[in-house]
Design goal:
It is found in: Cytoplasm. With 840 residues, this protein is an alpha/beta fold. Helices cover 39% and strands 18% of the residues. The relative contact order is 0.08.
Length: 840
């Protein structure tokens, strides 16, 4: 069963409790939802459920204790009041017996709703449950009425309900989501005096509603369910659910944009928001840019170790990727071909004749770039007066919960200026400004007849109106003008005319380019765009997203399924093996007891120690143990047992990369009292054990890691015990791979490596000395040590050795980690060495 924890407001309720008075309450879904992949789209065949409480006996008298002829004031979140009228105990019983019905509802996240509906029809999803608020004020409802509503939604509409108090919903949605989260995620950091951004209680409401969702999920969860959580309203839910359901499959999809770390760090609750998300097995974003921003933010603020598609935090691995949402192109084509749309197209042709039609459809919001779009159109007409009487821009502006009177005045002023350019506005009106939405069939007809469509948003997740336009213009193949700051630009970069909405001149030129484009150019660009829309449709999005969640959970589950080492089995397989390899991680220099065990173990086995220490330090400590091979500086250098030669796995440019990194690290250390930089030949350590200011320490470490990991793919920075290690990428794995190849391959393996300069003055070694060992079949491999981000890739490679049958018996052993690549665990370093001692 797939159960989706969707955004709040899945259903809206309106009430008509009195005869003749026909009072309609304001509802929670009367406020606009700002999900980027829905807000500019009616969607295709929106027919989601709306719970409606109506008086089905409007002509019958209702004895509710009030005079229905009286005039009542309707507060913002429901309830009735009358001036100078004292409270009544019956106010909570107003709707106890009011009948209700479920009707279609068009608000909410249309992209998500249509995708789930399509996947159900096509058999991709076979069972599901929606989870959300019912979209109405609930304080005025008694328990009996609430039960009726929630039971009907559950039994007939696959919908489980969360019922927050009106105050909680207001604080969560209106205050924290709309005045703090949404603007900042779109690079509009709130700082005006009316903002609620700095009121702590709104955060408490946000957290409380998230907890209600999490509690409901835990209550209805069944084993093997997939929990798919959507958007910024519910960022805390994954971790809240994970704390109660540690084995659950949890995915999160972020429909809106994710800003850079410098913007995200402005949130007062930045760590809590990120940690909430990291309760997921898999997190998806609309574009790779948002993925990169998220990983860098976690790297910088949480000191999580990241790669291009995953991060490790507190021993837990989370997979991350881009998976842009799509539309049901097939259903949309069928709707465009209907008679009603065809009729509207004919009316549009009659109304505007041969004029070039430019269409835009946006929320009335500053971030949509409507003003900039109009200013560019004004410049276009001024520079190209021949288009004044042959072109019309039809701009549809939808209601927005954040509309500003000043913005409306500014926009209408530009509209008036543009229309004043016409010598006769009765016959030529360059701009038709529609300050309301139109029926979807009319809208489809309009974009089907459009000669170009423009999206000028300053920042946006995925604008599905682009997808709709591309499908609708299949006959005319009109060009798309698209802001480069939308998520859509990432998928339509080939075929669309990309613009910077702040560059008014560029946008004005884009108008002319689009309108003057040849049929051949239109055909070529449209096919590039349509190929994306048709292949990355909503069915593909749902199927790929659910598979991503399941695969990520399976990978994580494999890491968590490691059990205590079976010492008896370990010893038996050791005794029955002949060609044995041990690779042991050194997190500190060994004490005398451990040195003695290593010495005895190396008499009849190949034993190597892997550490971040320099070559000279390891040589000094292990000079009395020539049988023990050494891997220094995190894998950059390897000294085979019973030899004096060091093999280098670092590329030639590593030294220069580390030198430039050291300059940056030293500058950080100067500004952080107690920090110091230690540089080896192929490794750099930024140590902060003596730093007193822990807050500055965390910020500095985050900045350094972000700098290193974004500067070059050849080096990587990670944190182990408050020390940042910078070393060649995958150096440790390369060294261990070489060892396995060295012990099992006939002939020289010297071509894969180079010999490092000796640590003390001597003649340069010969390459022939690299291969002194007779190759044998490995039948026992043990890779063990403390779990950390430096050692985990080596443990992962050990599992590959087992999977590819390169060795008969492979043991990957770790401690101090809850989620690790190791298959077996021990309680600590002392236990590991005690077990090794018993083998001798």
């Amino acid at each position: 069963m797939k159960r989706d924890a969707a955004t709040p407001g899945l259903a809206g309720v309106k009430r008509v409790p009195y005869k003749r008075s026909a009072l309609k309450f304001s509802t929670r879904d009367d406020v606009d939802d700002e999900e980027d992949d829905n807000e500019d789209s009616n969607g295709v065949d929106d027919d989601e459920d709306e719970a409606v409480i109506e008086n089905e006996n409007a002509n019958d008298d209702i004895d509710d204790g009030y005079d229905a002829q009286q005039s009542y004031r309707i507060p913002k979140f429901g309830g009735f009041s009358k001036k100078k009228m004292p409270p009544t105990s019956k106010s909570s019983e107003l709707f106890a017996n009011a009948p209700f019905q479920v009707v279609e509802f068009a608000k909410g996240n249309g992209g998500l709703k249509n995708a789930i509906k399509s996947s159900l029809e096509d058999g991709i999803v076979k069972d599901y449950t929606w989870l959300g608020t019912i979209g109405i004020p609930t304080d005025a409802l008694d328990d009996k009425t609430k039960l009726k509503i929630t039971s009907k939604l559950k039994d007939e509409y696959h919908s489980e309900s969360v019922l927050p108090s009106d105050l909680t919903f207001q604080g969560h949605y209106k205050n924290f989501c709309k005045q703090i989260l949404w603007p900042t995620l779109h690079y509009q950091i709130p700082d005006n005096p009316n903002s609620k951004a700095f009121e702590d209680h709104s955060w408490e409401y946000y957290r409380s509603l998230n907890q209600l969702f999490a509690d409901k999920i835990v209550q209805i969860y069944k084993e093997d369910d997939i929990i798919w959580i959507h958007d910024y309203h519910l960022l805390l839910v994954p971790e809240m659910v994970r704390s109660k359901l540690p084995n659950a499959k949890i995915g999160f999809f972020m429909h809106v944009s994710f800003p850079s770390s410098e913007v995200f760090r402005c949130f007062a609750q930045r760590e809590a928001l990120l940690q909430g998300l990291l309760g997921s097995n898999a997190i998806s974003f609309q574009t790779t840019e948002y993925v990169r921003h998220f990983l860098q933010t976690c790297n910088k603020l949480l000191l999580a170790d990241v790669s291009h598609d995953e991060l490790r935090y507190n021993g837990y691995t989370v997979k991350v990727r881009a998976q842009p949402v799509g539309i049901d192109a097939h259903k949309l084509r069928k709707q465009i071909a209907t008679d009603v749309v065809t009729s509207w197209r004919e009316l549009i042709k009659q109304r505007w004749g041969d004029k070039k039609i430019i269409v835009g459809r946006d929320k009335f919001d500053r971030i949509r770039g409507v003003k900039e779009k109009l200013l560019a159109y004004e410049m276009f007409l001024q520079n190209n007066p021949e288009y004044l009487e042959t072109t019309v821009l039809i701009q549809i502006c939808l209601k927005s919960s954040t509309v500003e009177n000043a913005l409306e005045s500014e926009i209408m002023s530009v509209v008036d200026r543009i229309n004043s350019l016409s010598p006769n506005i009765s016959t030529t009106q360059p701009v038709v400004f529609i300050h309301q939405d139109i029926d979807f069939v009319q809208y489809l007809a309009l974009i089907a007849e459009a000669d170009t469509f423009i999206v000028s948003s300053m920042r946006e997740g995925m604008n599905l109106t682009c997808h709709e336009f591309i499908v609708a213009t299949a006959e005319k193949k009109s060009p798309l003008i698209l802001s480069e700051f939308t998520g859509s630009a990432a998928v339509f970069k080939k075929g669309a005319l990309l613009i910077n909405p702040w560059d008014i001149k560029q946008v004005s030129q884009a108008y002319k380019t689009a309108l003057a484009m040849t049929p051949g150019e239109k055909e070529k660009n449209w096919r590039l765009l349509y190929d994306v829309v048709s292949h990355q449709d909503c069915d593909y999005w749902v199927e790929a997203s659910l598979k991503f969640i399941k695969d990520s959970w399976q990978e994580q589950h494999e890491k968590e399924r490691y059990s205590a080492l079976n010492v008896k089995d370990f010893s038996l397989k050791y005794q029955t093996s002949k060609n044995r390899l041990f690779v042991l991680l050194l997190s500190r220099m060994p004490v005398e007891r451990e040195m003695a065990i290593l010495s005895d173990l190396s008499t009849d086995n190949q034993v190597y120690v892997l550490s971040g220490y320099k070559r000279v330090d390891l040589e000094r400590v292990f000079r009395r143990l020539p049988n023990v091979g050494l891997i220094a500086e995190g894998g950059s250098f390897l000294k085979l047992s019973n030899t004096s030669n060091w093999i280098s796995f670092a590329s030639e440019d590593i030294e220069s990369l580390l030198q430039s990194t050291a300059v940056v690290a030293e500058s950080f250390a100067e500004r952080l009292p107690g920090a110091r930089v230690e540089q080896g030949e192929s490794i750099l350590a930024f140590r902060t054990e003596q730093v007193q200011d822990k807050e500055r320490e965390a910020a500095t470490i985050g900045d350094l890691i972000t700098h290193v990991n974004s500067s070059s793919k050849k080096i990587h920075a990670t944190v182990v015990d408050n020390t940042v290690y910078v070393l060649p990428s995958d150096a440790a794995v390369k060294a261990v791979k070489f060892l396995v190849k060295y012990m099992t391959t006939t002939g020289t393996v010297g071509n894969d490596i180079s010999l490092a300069q000796p640590t003390s003055p001597s003649s340069a070694p010969s390459v022939a000395n690299v291969d002194p060992m007779e190759p044998k079949q490995l039948d026992f491999v043990c890779i063990g040590g403390r779990s950390n981000d430096l050692f985990e890739p080596v443990l992962g490679y050990g599992n590959e050795i087992s999977a590819e049958n390169e060795a008969k018996n492979v043991f990957t052993i770790s401690f101090d980690g809850d989620a690790t690549n190791a298959k077996e665990r021990v309680e600590g370093l002392n236990e590991l060495y005690s077990i090794l001692k018993k083998l001798i």
